[in-house]
Batch of 2 targets.
Target 1
Amino acid sequence: MVLFQISEPGETQVQRQHHLAVGIDLGTTNSLVATVRDGRAETMINAQGDHHCPSVVRYFADKPPVVGQEAKDAAYQDPLNTVASAKRLLGRGVADIETTANKLPYEFSKSESGTPLIRTVAGDISPVTVSADILKTLMQQAEADLGGELDGVVITVPAYFDDAQRQATKDAARLAGLKVLRLLNEPTAAAVAYGLDSGSEGVHVVYDFGGGTFDVSILRFSRGVFEVMATAGDSALGGDDVDRVVAEWIMSEASLGDDIEHSQLRRVIGEANRAKEALTTADVVPLSVEGVNGSQWLGALTRAAFERLIEPLIQRTLRPCRRALRDAGLSAADIQDVVMVGGSTRIPRVRECVGEFFGREPMIDIDPDKVVAVGAAIQADILVGNKPGDEMLLLDVIPLSLGLETMGGLVEKLVPRNTTIPVVRAQEFTTFKDGQTAMSIHVLQGERELVADCRSLARFELRGIPPMNAGAARIRVTFQVDADGLLSVSAQELTSGVESSIEIKPSYGLTEGEVEKMLSDSLLYAEDDVKKRRLHEQLVDSARLIEAVEAALGMDGEGMLTKQECVSIKAALQSLKDVQQQGEDIAAIKAAHDKLERTTSDFAARRMDVHINEALSGKLLDQIID
Amino acid sequence: MGSIFSKDYFALFNLPVAYDLDHEVLTRRYREMQGMIHPDRFVNATEKERRVSVQLTALTNEAYQTLKTPLTRARYLLQLRGVDIDDSVTSKDIAFLTEQIELRERLEDVRHSADVEGELLKLGGELQSRLVGLQQTLQDVFLDESPDALEKAHRLYDEMQFISRLNDELDEIEDALD
């Protein structure tokens, strides 16, 4: 482990260590990884020479899972142990997927926390684990290519993903041993790749119709700032559904019932998928599937018939487009251009309808499959610190309103949809019984008035409220949505100043304990590997902290610290450097790291305040502007 | 110079405390501030700095949204001038109350009309121009800092808020159409 070289301010900039970072498009059907090399962002190819890794994992009883094309090829012969489109199950409850599930060729069971598990020969597998296995494969591919361990990744998620789906994605990354720099919304990533490439300022629409999700985002791009004005979508609508309606049509034409076997259903869906792709250019495509009693059914699908079949799906994408325009306070005429992203935008009729809706030709000159990963790589490169001084900034929004359950099963909105993140909102509660020391808060996400119609995110149990008369306690609960779009909650009783402890029960996710257990389970059969990775993560984190503290000391140490403070910080810094140098004892490094964090906490707060105030005092800010 | 968290929203963007504000300057300063404080700029900083960055960015977002929107800007300015705004108190202005009832009835008519979309557009347009008119008046009233003017500003704000809420409900009807 080489320590990063630090340049003192004022000194000539020494060559900074190049940090290894990638952007990952974790898609429903395909996943991609991209990186910035010599200033150019590009998708990386795997050992087979492919840019795409099918998001398919095949599980075995006696050996590690196989990910990608090989797994996809085995889907027909081993449908129950081969998991595709796991992204559609991420952050969902068993009840959610019942409608989808009878269309998915797996067998499900239910975890303790109510999330669906897929029955395989390797045991019951969580969608989070499937996603983690895909991420691991991409990580190994990237590390082999870049020749070192990754310092951080940006993973893209559909803009319309709710909190549970985002959290599940982050859990998957954690299981895979990745350091997530940011969860980035897919359309925003596409806009970055497209906007930086074309340099065209103005209002852009990104229409992202992928394998399993649909998003539309309206962004304003100006002077390096991408500001999302509104986003809308459907996190369960994609190319999979196109395949499904075609498959259903084939089944009805071939007189196949709903009770066909998993493997045959897979074949029919495969045939539907092939037909869809062929109809991008062909006017008619011949079809062949195994019919009743082993006979062969032969048929054909014309483009016109195909377009009639999928028309309702296309219409379903236009509703969110209307809503996004309305939320942004714009009309179609205000839009400068429409960028098409996602494999489903290859369908000519989709392009036609989108063109008609926005009254202009959509942009199709970029590769709709790669643009998201490329945008993520650009963002990862900046966030990991390879481009100091870069002015690019992404201002994103929360896609769905956050609210709290109130009396009578109603939802009171706390953060409306399309609010720029991060956002912090506080709400005061009181007790309604004498001596009450605990209370429960139910957080929901969605636009409807009734609790039953919104998505339950979590129940927060507040404990440790000091006993008082009913109505006397004033508990301020603070909801914070960070730059990843993830919610966290804290609470304080105001009259006593007592912090209440919060126990979070996610409605559709893994609890902290479950994630820890999955991590330690994976440790069982890959102990060395996971240990090594954890140590690496800790070393990277600590190297960053050392870098940050040294820079801060160099800049402000003299002006803002007393002698005593300076001595303590330098001592804590040296302790961390010492254990870091040995680079073996993860517990000791962690302890020294935490000590340094604590010792510098006040200094950090002081610096932020002083610098921002300086900047705000007027002159500096206006100099920057003019 | 106090902590940035204790500044009023206008001071945060280095703007004079006034209802009439230069939107271009507001947006420009907001973006410049975001460029300095956004969590993306602190990915590699200490945990404390990352936390402060999130809070500060959230504050700036809140301040920007509040000042950008005419209705919330009016509310904020009234609060700064010591007006206690209680949303649960209904107006005593009979003419306004009568108008509220009329407008509510019209909204219900829209909901049940044969041509919902057309009627939405019509009522929406009326409400919009009404809002623009109110803003104009409010702008002048806010220039005067006498107690009478403040009282009047408060009344105008109440009207604006009512009309805005109706407008939101129209949006909800439109949402439900899809």
Note: Chain A has four domains: 21-196+368-387, 239-308, 402-510, 526-616.
Target 2
Amino acid sequence: MNKFKRLTLLCGHYGSGKTNVAVNLAFYLKEQYNNVVVADLDIVNPYFRTKDSIDDFKARGIELICSQYTNTNVDIPALPANMYRLTADKDITAVIDVGGDDRGAYALGRLVPEIKAENNFDMLMVINGYRPLTPDAESTVEVMREIETACGLEFTGLVNNSNIGEETTAEDIIKSIGYANEVSQASGLPIVMTSVKRELYDGLKNKIDNLLPMTLQAKPV
Amino acid sequence: MADKILMKGNEAIAEAAIKAGCMHYFGYPITPQTEVAAYMAKRMPKIGGCFLQAESEIAAINMVYGVASTGKRVMTSSSSPGISLKSEGLSYLAGSDLPALIVNVQRGGPGLGGIQPSQADYFQATKGGGHGDFKMIVLAPSSVQEMADLTVKGFDLADKYRMPTMLLADGTMGQMMEPVSLDYEVKETVDKPWATTGTKMEREHNIVTSLFLKPDELEDLVVERYERYKVVEENEVMYEEYMMDDADICIAAFGIAARVAKNAINEARKQGIKVGLIRPITLWPFPVAPFKKAADKVKEIISVELSMGQMIEDVRLACECKVPVTLCSRTGGMIPSPEQVLEAITRANGGAK
């Protein structure tokens, strides 16, 4: 894959898979960088947070920045006080998991002046063409523009995370390439990577560039 | 692209409602059902429908009453504490013979409780849900696909029997994501000559009310309503049986508990224990017949629930105390594990190996 900037911001439509991508991208980055930090800036959803993966982070020496209320069922929007380290401490390489839609992206706004000043970031839109409100390029780009307006920062690339959960087949991924290309054309942004569950990785690695294998964080019942 | 899309249970309810012709939604946000309202807020303006975030749950249910009076399909959704607030409105809907779909994505209680999943509103849903003599049809989905399918079914049943229908899900069902197909051909076939749609000076006024000051008149109306409930009980019972053919032990479970139970049953079968599942899909009308039948051939029925044991009372009534009915449950937002259910199965089978 291409070289990653110091800060990788992951935004996207609600339920597009930002957190799964964030966790697995952090695993990937940890293989190349020393000080890898995952920051959870989600103020929208009290469930399915990066903190669910805390044991995996600890095992790999990845640091997690998240609100003290994360996973406590205290259902209030809260941000971690130490999130300012993301822009103040230039020695860390960070993956920033931003909440869904424009509502979630508001939380990012506070850091934007510092992020822009340093200018060593990528803001990636995580897209899933199998989600009901982003089935095509037009609706996906609409969500992109809403997020950009909310946080005051413009996207620099796309992550194609199209999937239908556990049942996803290699064919579903191949079929989603057309959708991802259309979003790329409509937005003028490159597809930085395509993320797939680990079981599909070997079968697809010669067919799709920049493939990120993922261990899914939520387990089926 | 695939025929299926990836949806949260809450989103599936919202989209299925729209597909069923529901163009009016009134609600108030509460975890873990907020995505229903959020989805409606995005979709309704695009299709010329009405999304309105009311000032309270009480306001929302009374807006539902208003739209239902006009014969249009209408829905509200909430989670446990919010449903308690709606209970006055539910009674008024029933007392006025109005069809509507009410969604309860349950969380732990009582009181404000917590935000984790629960099935402890079973009594509230199936034994009335408000004051006075009345019933609601209560549907209990066990997958994201069923969240959608039973939403459509709920509108149909509500219209057919002129009564409020409740979709009783839980936080897990609302939050989990699964592939779904929403390929419905929806047809609204029920005439609503009672609806307040304007007389055009061509007919008498239709009056929608639950106020009847003459007791004999009110009695007649309630008795007539109960005749209709009898028809529902005869015709609309839904349930699933899993591995019941040769079962010595029967699990009773609905919703998320049934999924946990299936995992435990599969494991028990590997150990040679003959255990099956009866999963009520309609909680009212309750599937009495399959439990009555099971009571003649199994040695124990285990009710697996996310409560201190509520459905267990209906299971006991259904099997007329012919076999022991025991409880395997967690409450307060906790979910029984497959291991816990397997342990109960092993005990019922005659102790641990």
Note: Chain B has a mean pLDDT of 96.
